[in-house]
Amino acid sequence: PGDPRRRQHRDRQPGHRRRPPAGQRAAPAQRPRRVQGGGGDQLDAGVYHALSVSGLHLAAVAVLTFAGLTRVLAGLGLPRAGSPRQVAAAIALPLAVGYTAITGAEVATVRALIVVGAVLIGEVVERRVRMIDALGLAALLVLIDRPSALGDPGFQLSFVAALTLIVGGGGPAD
Question: DSSP assignment of 58-99, as one string?
């Protein structure tokens, strides 16, 4: 109250909540509404956005889980049968599947899951997987499940971006 310059300065301070003018009440808070999302009904309260992930997020979670489990298992001298990498891959794969299911299984995430899954299964059976072959498998499986995805720009961009990273990324494509 009082000097308008002081009021303007106070209103710009972080965390300050501006009160409605005297005689007016604040608008009632809107209740979250249900919206259709990729994985079913979601509350429009930012939850769907928080779970929205790209293929890169899934790959990062799977690779970090695999690497962390491999180190822990090797440090503990486990397992007695198989290598720590095999056991870590066998544990990381179902976690990646669950992560994909929770986040709505969009095309980019499913593509990444199939590629990551192929690599992790390769670790379990001690076979090296060529990334270009894993990407081709992902495209084939996505199109078998959703043939209409071929015309979807999200499908096209997702696979072109992944192919560009594999072929032009400077690393080996196999």
Answer: HHHHHHHHHHHHHHHHHHHT--SSS-HHHHHHHHHHHHHHHH
**Model pLDDT for residues 90-126, shown as the tens digit of each residue:** 999 999 999 999 988 888 899 999 999 999 999 999 9
Distance, in Å, from the CA atom of 12 to the CA atom of 35, rounded to the nearest integer, reads 34
DSSP summary character for residue 145: H
Instruction: Say if CB 92 and CB 25 are below 8 A apart.
Output: no
Higher pLDDT, 85 or 48: 85
Using alpha carbons, list the distances in angstroms from residue 156 to 38, 107, 142, 144, 149. 18, 10, 12, 15, 8
Directed axis angle between helix 84-102 and helix 107-124, to 10°? 160
Listed residue (103, 8, 15, 124) closest to 58, CA to CA? 103
